[in-house]
Amino acid sequence: MYPEPAHHVPAERAVEVHRPTPLPPAVPVAAVQPGTVPAVASIVLPDGRIVTGYAVEPAQPEPVTVKPAVSRTAVNVALGGVGFLAVCGGLLLLTSFIAALTAFITQLIILAAVVFGGWIAVQVLGPSGHRSGTTVNIRKAVFKRNHFHG
After folding, report:
1. Could you tell me which of 61, 56, 19, 26 has the C-alpha nearest to residue 40?
2. I need a surface site. Which of 56, 65, 77, 98 has the fewest CB within 10 A?
């Protein structure tokens, strides 16, 4: 029912052997003995027993560094937020300034067009006495330009 196992020649592979490196033996930490032998103290307990031993000074904890009331991360986030709002406000003011400047320039262009257009209208539609060319006054028979005087 099952196929018979096929026997294969094992392929030669390079086997790398890892050998553990022994660690040097740990140096035991010896308790530091005080330079002088402390005085022996004896205490009489209320039930009459006497306990004798060395007086040990209580261990002084290392001074704790004073932490600021507000974390530096919170201060940095707050300053970043203030800076972002300042930039946004500056961009808003810059946009408003550009819009106002554009409106002002547009009004100046319109004003110049109205003034210049009015000047042209006065030149075209104004009295014709200032024009160059032949002027004829028939009643007095004066012809300027052709030098006829009558």
Report:
1. 56
2. 65
pLDDT confidence bin for 13, thresholds 50/70/90: low
pLDDT band at 41 (very low <50, low <70, confident <90, very high): confident
Tokens of 64: 């704790």
What pLDDT is stored for residue 125 in this prediction? 80
Dihedral in degrees, nearest 10, Cα atoms 74, 75, 81, 82: 150
Report the candidate in 35, 52, 56 with the shortest Cα–Cα distance to residue 44: 52
Confidence of residue 94 (pLDDT cuts 50, 70, 90): very high
Average pLDDT (126-135) is 59
**Region of residue 133 (phi > 0: left; psi between -120 and 50: alpha; otherwise: beta):** left
How many angstroms separate the most distant Cα atoms in the chain?
164
53 beta partners: 41
